[in-house]
Amino acid sequence: MQKVRVPINSFQYGEVSDSLVMRTDTAIYAASAQRVENLLVMAEGSVKKRTGLRHAYTYGLTYSASDPVKSCLASFIYDDNEQYIVSIEHQKLRFFRIVDADTITLVDTVTADTSSAALPFDQDYIKQYTTAQYGDVMFICHPLFAPRVITRTSLTNFDVSTFTFDSRPDDEVIFQPYYPFQAQGVTLNPNATSGSAVILVTSAAYWDTTGDVFPNGNFENSKHVGVTVKYHDTEIEIASVQSSTAATGSVVGTTQVRLAVVNPLRTISGTTTVEVTHLGHGFAGGETIVISEADATGGINVANINGSRVIATIIDENTYTYPAGGNSSSSADGGGNVKVTTHAPTAGWSEQAFSAKRGYPAAVVFHENRLVFGGTIAQPDTIWMSKIGSFFNFDVGNAEDIDSISLTAATGEVNEIRYLVSNRDLQVFTASNELYIPTYLNQAITPANAQIRKQTPFGAEFVKPASIDGATIFVQYGGRSIREYLYTDTEDAYTSTSVSTLSAHLIDSPQSMAVVHGGFGLSDSIAFVTRTNGEAAMFSSNRAEKRASWSRVTTNGRFAGAIAAHNRIFVNVYDEYNKLQLCEFTGDIGLDMYIYEAIPSNNLVDVSDLYANTQVVDVLATDGTTVSHIGSFTTNSASKIDISAHAGNGYTHVYVGKKFTAKLVTNAIDVNAANGAVSGDVRGISSVVLDVKNTRSIKVNGSNFSSLAGFNGKKEIRVLGYSRDPQVTIEQNDPLPFQVNGLIAELII
Fold first, then answer.
1. Would you say the pTM of this structure is higher than 0.90?
2. Minimal CA–CA distance to 566: which of 84, 4, 25?
3. Into which CATH architecture does domain 3-49+662-748 fall?
């Protein structure tokens, strides 16, 4: 037998999968562990006990296995001093103001019965809501409901309304996107040019006829009721549906178009032919139109140009001809400001893109001073971008640089857009691919240069992506991997690399993801990921140093969601009694669900705001300078704890909460002997030299070392025992400091 000293100098790779158990030859094995629980992996490779969870609010909601996600969190950041957390719940919104480092206050609540816009946030859909915020306004989107607009009206008040597109006051044109949903060749024919009882007849089945027929013969519960169709340049709102080919609507203004081109008429000398430039007219030969407000041109008087005319020929999509009532005396361009009125059948019509019939945007983001929507049920792979600086205006106009943009990801397959991220470019995450809309030479995206490029083929789950360390991380479709979406100059393209390969067991079925940069007292960027099983994991990243590590996070209950706000992480947690609580990771307090209370003169501390009677809690007491663990207490019938036994110690305040366990389990201690590797052989650990910092009361391989009191430096501990996979287990069950910089194990082989 011989003794070999095996050093473990770093845990920089954190907790790794047991699939690496035989990779004793790798640097990863030497700088990782089998279990890293409730420990932060530090930049230098040490591990330190995580911060505790300070209680902020009790929702009054209880966990159920059928609906585990009762609240979806979003951040609302106006500036450094005005920050909020929004809780999206079943037909309810709660607004919490982050007052300072210690205070989070519920300032407003909006419910379905108090809002001017009925809140559609049903329990079944909470997980899929997306949000985007700019200044005092936040947008919330879901493919089944019209977007909602949250407006902050004061420090403590918020209003909720339904998203409404801007309109043009002169003729009430609505600046909203349209799309031709009809099959090719299906025409629309209104029987009048104005009024509120215009019959709209299609040449084939089109109108929604789901539901019962009312006594008046109308399908008034049709999803087309309230929808606007665009007939040439005229908008008609559907009031009722009579059949699959007939509906009744109200014309917004008249079916009249003022031609965009000045002097759009051209005459040919000695003929009655008038050529009309009418951009995107959608007409067919033989249709009847009415020309009005045209000036005389080419020697043809007004009476012979204006009036009811039949289209003779279609030259192209922007040009047609008709015979005038008299011959021209010359070839000329003119006509002035011409209007065209028609109610003839045409295939050139479309329907509003967002509606109960076609669905609503699934994704929303602000990018380059535009509001950007992505993906509806009917158009899952389409993106709409507002006019620059006008977030409620989606009019394509004349395709000027500032005008609205609509484009579809024509990548050969339908890509259901789930998230949009504003980063170096506009990043597009779909169910099957990762795309982006590039920004060219630092120029803004315009209708002329906008295009969608397909990059990687992994797809995204319903977990909001987050920016970290210069990249965007997202949950791969299927929920078994977290990937990093990163642009590289060398390839002039985006790559998508898994950052969870070594620790895939920690991120199975992610539920939410929040990122802070330099939070938890670390210099690294930290991603906090909650899982559907109630556990969580933390990922720390520093790409410049090529460091990445995962650790697991557990609590006395279940994690149910997370959000980052101003470099702080807030979480929803179901406590051990299944009540939903809002908490924050903060402070060097080794307690979860803790509250901070002043000690009254009778030494009976009231904790009824959070803890009922006969509950066991742990207490840390402070005199303003030092913090001491004074033990476990059971609340009395009035939900108070009696600390009179410690009255003479000068304590002024207490932290009351639930302790949690921090645990480090090394990989099997291994070494290559003279005759080869000893993996699988029975071997023992005779002693361990720990290098610790400010560490108190730990257990090493089951032996209690409570005598450690704020110890710094190296500590030798005798650990005897034999195993085929000898390991060192270090754990702490008390709410005390704990940091391990490294260790040396004396191995007997």
1. no
2. 84
3. Sandwich (2.60)
